[in-house]
Design goal:
With about 260 residues, this protein is an all-alpha fold. It has one domain: MetI-like (MetI-like fold, Orthogonal Bundle). The chain contains eleven helices and no strands. The protein has helices at about 10-35, 45-60, 60-90, 95-110, 110-125, 125-150, 155-165, 170-195, 200-205, 210-220, 225-250. α3 (about 60-90) packs across α10 (about 210-220), α4 (about 95-110) crosses α6 and α7 runs antiparallel to α8. The radius of gyration is 22 Å and the shape is globular.
């Protein structure tokens, strides 16, 4: 029986997750072999698995994955080192928030794909434009999330610190950051996922390597199994990264009620 908002044992959670995945694969297999959809549009899971193997053994796909991972993490790191301090300042000093927030709100609603031609004009077709696409898709969302996380720190904590003689820097370092850190780590995990969603857009810009380039090249030859294998590879990398962040969160913040 389902219980509303009630925790379930970890083993049961894993079992249900595996069951959901198996159900998806079975439905996929049944639809693919039913003849409702042509194999060139929906190959079987086995065909995609075979294509996955060919990509690694014949096409040097591991190298493309390494290049894409490097691009995503570099752009994400650039976004983090700017967004976290700026978000803290925007929430701590309302004048800074009033200055930056309208502009950031405006930019974050612009579709990143529409900015690609402009980024190419500014940065050319090399690595800089690809990093810029990934950075644009991450930074403006992240800075507002950090801003909101630090705003949620109870004012009583800050007033207590000031009353006890802490200066503004000490309040920010010893009260605001530790209190907001669990939510900040969660938001870093979420925005890293967003960064991966822009990878295809970034790597179709005159790229000669990367997972996005491979997928975009193969679709011209209607190699659907290989295209799906490339997409699944991104999903697997994202899932592993997400689980690593979750594990880090549980280990670092064991005091939270989960």
């Amino acid at each position: 029986m389902l219980s509303f908002r009630t925790a379930i044992p970890r083993r049961q959670e894993v079992t249900l997750g595996v069951a959901g995945l198996v159900t998806f694969l079975v439905v996929w297999q049944l639809v693919a072999v039913s003849g409702w959809i042509k194999p060139q549009f929906l190959p079987t899971p086995g065909a995609v698995l075979a294509a996955f193997w060919r990509l690694f053994t014949e096409a040097g796909f591991a190298g493309d994955i390494a290049i894409s991972v490097g691009r995503v993490w570099f752009a994400f790191f650039l976004a983090v080192i700017i967004a976290v301090p700026l978000g803290l300042l925007m929430s701590s000093y309302r004048a800074i928030g009033a200055f930056f927030e309208p502009f950031i709100d405006f930019i974050r609603y612009l579709p990143v794909p529409a900015l690609v031609p402009l980024l190419i004009i500014w940065f050319g077709v090399g690595e800089a434009s690809k990093i810029a696409v990934l950075w644009m898709g991450t930074f403006f969302q992240l800075v507002l999330l950090i801003n909101e996380d630090t705003k949620r720190v109870p004012r009583e904590y800050i007033e207590s610190g000031l009353t006890l003689g802490a200066n503004q820097w000490q309040v920010m370092r010893d009260i605001i950051c530790p209190a907001a850190l669990p939510n900040m780590v969660d938001n870093l995990r979420i925005t890293l996922g967003w960064c991966w969603t822009y990878l295809i857009i970034a790597e179709i810009v005159a790229a000669s390597s990367g997972v996005g380039h491979v997928i975009w090249s193969l679709r011209r030859f209607v190699k659907t199994p290989e295209v799906m294998a490339g997409i699944i590879a991104i999903g697997i990398i994202g899932l592993l990264t997400d689980q690593a962040f979750r594990l880090l969160h549980r280990r670092a913040f064991v005091y939270l009620d989960r």
